[in-house]
Amino acid sequence: MLSRLAFAVVLLVATGARAEGTLFIVGGNAQSDLLFDRFVDLAGGRSAKICIFGTNSSDPQDSRDFYAGLFRERGAETVAVEVTMQNSAWNTEPFEDDFFTFDDPEEEVRRTEARLTENPATVALVRTCNAVWFGGGNQNRGAFALLNQDGSDTPVMDAIRRIVAEGGVFGGTSAGAAVQSDPMIVNGTSIDSLSLPSGPLRVGTSNGFGLLPAGFLADQHFLVWGRLGRLLVAMADNGIAQGVGVNEDTAVVVDLDSGVWEVVGTSQALVVELEDPSDPKAAILHLLGDGDRYDTAARTVVVNGALGDITGDPFLPQAPIFKLGIFNADVVPEIITLAVDTIGETSGVGIDFLGGADPRYSVYGVQLRFAQTDDTRAYLCFRSCRADNPDRSGSLARYSVTNMRSTVETLAIAVTEADKPETRRGRFQAITDLIKAALGLPKL
Known about the structure:
This protein is of the alpha/beta class. It folds into two domains: 15-302, 3-Layer(aba) Sandwich (Rossmann fold), CATH 3.40.50.880; 315-375 and 404-438, no CATH class. It has helices spanning 2-16, 33-43, 60-73, 105-108, 120-126, 139-146, 155-165, 175-178, 190-195, 228-237, 331-341, 423-438, and strands at residues 22-26, 49-53, 77-81, 131-134, 169-173, 184-187, 204-206, 216-220, 242-246, 250-255, 260-265, 268-276, 279-289, 293-295, 300-302, 307-309, 322-324, 347-355, 362-381, 398-414. The strands form three sheets. The protein has a nine-stranded mixed sheet, with helices on both faces.
């Protein structure tokens, strides 16, 4: 019995240790006091000791100094960790990559004797902290500095992982959010991702820290930069079934022990569940805001209790829901909310276009449809949640919507030879016909 108990303890440490801490995934442009207050609180308040990395930034010291000031204002102790691309363990030769390089890799990644990510003193310094913060910039910097060439941990990365395993907190914004996944998304736009053939020009991924458990993927600057398409494709390309896109000035707090994600901040996050982990064309979406929680194991949502349930009680006047430029800022959440709060409508359509080989004569694009399911629930934040929004509608309204289905259709339309002398008219007519088809209307 004793030997079995000892084995169980060893097994728990080996397989479950990483599931004891917290991740703080900020979508970028973090400005709200709510975010930094919450991070420091999770780290222990005035007993927090936060190791700050500026590694993602082209000016690491400036990044470290900026966040150190914010955290010290809240009573936390801060420790500057001076790991950069230039002094990391393996970057002793210029870095080359088929689809991504820095502005000047010969200059930026140069020979170094410092090798701080292998330095015992740096490791010991990191081990004094109970929280870690990575600022924004370029997530490749952080990954290339803290991971070995084969993707394994450097000693400093191992020390960071131990902090999280022992119940600590890892937080980051923008690039500091992206690097928490493995793989992590490093480049790509939504329209390219959904239109181009498979390959790094479509959506680029690389080794990340993998603090977010396997089977999950995170993206940032999400709603304002229209990144739903690239997240869908990145998930499918890597066989990942669940993902989250975090908007700016908003965080997803990941409890690694329970697998529950909580949204914190002034904007929203979009949780994505692919129906087929290898296919980006159909997914279930949950649009969530401050105080909403998502259980990754049960795939269920508990919304902020301050919101009112408006399911089946639409308020806005009936009108077809259609938007050009589906990947423009905040268009995706707009269509989703209109589709649950418009009389007589249960779905909405968005279209975006990419020029063809000869953009004078051809247009290629994608159509996304967002439709209610039998399980869709809609919630709205009334006066009790936003004092400046006494009404139920308008730009200040804050919705949460669960179990909305998205489908993707690739489009290709061509302007005919007869239209070529009047190309602008031909393109306009082709796009108009496509819009009418999306709305179920007859062509002229």
